[in-house]
Amino acid sequence: MSKRTDPPGGLGSLASAALTAGSTLLVAGFAAIVGVLIAREFGRTDETDGFFAAYGVFFVVVLAAQAIRIAVLPALARSRAEWRLAGEIAGFAVAIAIVAVPLLLLAELAADPFASLLTGGESDIAQEAAVDALRWMVPAAVAHLFAGLAASGLAALDDYATAAFGYAAGSAAGLALMLARVEPDGIVAVGWGMMLNGTIALLVPVAGLAWRARTTRMPRTAVRPTGKPLVSRLGVFATAASLPIALQLLYVVCLPFAGRLGSGSVTSFGYAYLAAASLVSVTAVSLGLVTSVPLARSGLSPELAARHVVSASWVALAFIGAAAGVFALAGADVVEAFLGDAYGGDVGAEVGRLVVVLAPWMIVSVGVNVAFPLAFVVERLRALPLIAVVALGIHVLLAWIAVALADLDGLAVALAVSTAFVLAALLVELQALSPASRGLASAAAVIALLSLVGFLPAALLLGSLAAATAGLLTYVVLVALVRPRGLRTSWAYLRALR
Predict the structure, then answer these.
(1) At 465, is the pLDDT very low, low, confident or very high (cuts 50, 70, 90)?
(2) In the chain, what are the domain boundaries?
(3) 245-287 pLDDT, tens per residue?
(4) 3-class secondary structure for 167-182?
(5) What is d(CA 464, CA 476) in angstroms, rounded to the nearest whole number?
C-alpha cells in the first residue's frame, strides 16, 4: 500500500506535547476543584466518605484512558501514513467498547455490593452515597476512555489543539452545572457535572475527526475496523494501562482500611492524597510526557535513561520540597482556607499532616511518572502487567499491617513503599536502577536539607502562617543562592532537549 508523504508543518514536537500535557492536567485541575466544592458544601461526613470511595474508581479508569492514549498513538501514526487511520481508530474503539460495557454493567447492576466493598461496609449512608456516585462517575470515566482514543486520532493528524479545547470546555461546563445544581440537588449534582465534562471531552474530538473526514471526502467504508485482531488490541490496552491502574488501585485498596477508622477518615485521606497527587501531576506527569517526545526521536541508552529520570525529578522535587514545608508548618490553616470551616482545627491538622507523611510517596511517584513514558520509548512493556500485579499483592499486605500500627499515617507509608517497588522495577527494565536510584536519593536528600534549613528557624520563632510564609521565602532564596549542582545540571539538560 502506498505511503503517505505529508509536507512538514504544524506544531513542533515540544509544543504539541505541551498541549497534550496541558489537556491531561485539566483533568487533574477539574478534580481538585471538585474536591474543594465538596468540602465547602458538604463538610466531612459519611456521605463524603462514600463519594470519595467512588471517586477513586473514577480515577482508575481515567488513568487507564491516559495510558491508552499514549499506547495507541504509534499505531495510529503508522496507519495514517498507510491511509487507513479511520479503520484503525474504529478497531481500537471496538476494543474499548469490550472493556467499557462490563464497567457500565457493574456500575448499574452491582453498584450496591461494590459500594459496600469500597466503603468498608461500616456505614449505610456512605454506601448509599457511593452507589449514587458510581452510577454517574463510571459512565463519565468511560467517556474519557473514548475521548482519549479520539484525541490520539487527532494527534496522528498533527492536531493537538482540538482535544485540548474539548477537555477545557468540558471542565468549564461540568463545573458550571455543579455550581448551579449542587445546593438544590445535593452531592449527586457533582456526578452530573462529571458526566457532562466527560461527554463534552468526547464529543469535541469526535466532531474534529468527523470534520476531517468530511473535508477529505473519506468514504464511509473506511471506518470499518482494520489492522490487528481484537485480542491483540486488548493486549495493548492491558499492557499499557496495567501499571497506571495498579498505581491508582494502591490508593483504592487503602479506602476500606481507612473506612474502618471512623466517620470522615476516608474523606481526610482522600483530600490529602488529592493534594499530594496534584503536586505530582503538575510537576512530574507533564514534565515526563513532554520530555519523552525528543527522546523518542533520538533513542535512549540506559545511561541516558538514568540521567533523564534524575534530571526531570530534580525540578519536580524542588517544588514538592516547598509544598511539604508549607503543609508541615501551616497545614491546618491552608486546609481550612481551601476546604472551609468543616476542615478547621484537628481535622485540618490531620489532613495537613497526612500531606507531609505522603512526601516520600510524592518523591517515588515523581520517579515513576518520569520513568513510565520511557518504557514506551525503549519498547520494554512485557513486564508492566507483572509489576502491577506484584505491587498490588504487596500493597494489600502492607496496608493491612500499616493501618493497624499507625492508622492513616500507616496507609501513607504503605503507599510510599509499594510505589517505591514499582519505581525500582521500572528502573530495572530501563537498565538504570543503580545510577538512577543514587541520583534520586541524592536529589531527595539535598531538597530535604534545604527545606529543613529554610523552614525550621521560622517554625521555632513564628506562628503557623507567618512561619510558613517566611520559611517559603527563605527556601526559595536558599535554592537561588546555593543553586545545587544537581539542579543546575538537570535544568541545563532539560533546556537542551529538542
Answers:
(1) confident
(2) 9-227, 264-498
(3) 888 889 889 988 988 888 788 888 988 898 888 788 777 665 6
(4) HHHHHHHHHHHHHHHH
(5) 18
